[in-house]
Design a protein that fits this description.
With 95 residues, the chain is of the alpha+beta class. The chain has helices spanning 2-5, 44-52, 57-63; strands at residues 15-23, 34-41. Helix content is 21%, strand content 18%.
Length: 95
């Protein structure tokens, strides 16, 4: 699915970064095939257009509409992403 459809968002207005978190049955102890799209948005308008204006519809059509979790990102470390193996979410109070 990622290989077939992931490129469709390459030029989505307001999208800063996309990654796909993937588990494959039998690899590294995973009992299931599973994936989760992971997006960082530059604009709320772009995110809302994706969620409610058609971009998210493909996921909804294939799997039913999943719950969407969203957080405001405060920082990131730029890199190529070519060697990325995991994603981390760290929550801490902001003064």
């Amino acid at each position: 699915r990622v290989a077939r459809r992931g490129h469709l968002l390459d030029d989505w207005d307001g999208l800063g970064l996309k990654a796909y978190l993937v588990r494959e049955r039998g690899l590294r102890g995973s009992p299931v095939n599973q994936y989760a799209p992971f997006y960082l948005w530059n604009t709320v308008e772009g995110m809302n257009a994706f969620l409610w204006g058609g971009g998210f519809q493909g996921i909804s059509n294939d799997f039913g509409r999943p719950s969407v979790r969203q957080w405001t990102g405060l920082a990131f470390e730029e890199g190529t992403g070519a060697d990325a193996r995991f994603a981390v979410r760290r929550c801490q109070p902001v003064p």
